[in-house]
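Format notes (please read before filing issues)

Several people have asked whether sequences and structure tokens are stored in separate files. They are not. Every record keeps both together, in the order shown below: the sequence lines, then the token lines. Line labels are part of the format and must not be stripped during preprocessing.
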Amino acid sequence: MLTVYHIESTYVTSYDVIMEMFNDKDEKFRTLSKIILDIEEQKDIIEWADASIDSCMWTLEEKPEIGKEDRALIVGDLRENLNKKEAAFQKLTKLKSKDLRDEMIKLNMGNSADHFLESVEETKTKYGIDNLCKHEQNKKDAEYIEKHPEKVGTLHVTEDSLTFKFGSKKKD
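Then the structure lines:
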């Protein structure tokens, strides 16, 4: 659990803002938090697209004898992931250069989005968070599971079968 200390000043450091975003009770940083999560989501899309593009390229390079239908599927996947990457890159650029900068000015944080994002990365590293968007989703998933344990199940794998059984625990 993070402890946030609010210090009254006319200039708020990016580190203070990052720490407060994790525990923003007065919702002062709601828009900024949303922008940061959107940036993280676009970065994740780009990383996923890169991995998929690499996989398609390796398949095409390593298996030149691939049939025409399989090659068409792989090229289709390659094209789709290139388009996803381009769209995410455009959105990421807009988020960084316009939305984040505008919100930082509005909050009297200066206008150095790159410096702020470097501070976000340092904080993520310090707390062992790979992607804030996924981190937030994992927290929501954990809360949902806690509220609905009956929807949690177990996958049983044997040599010749896969069986999934839902939990039977009801929330009291």
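For reference, the curators noted about this record: Helices lie at 14-21, 30-62, 68-106, 113-126, 132-147. Confidence is low (pLDDT under 50) at residues 1-13.
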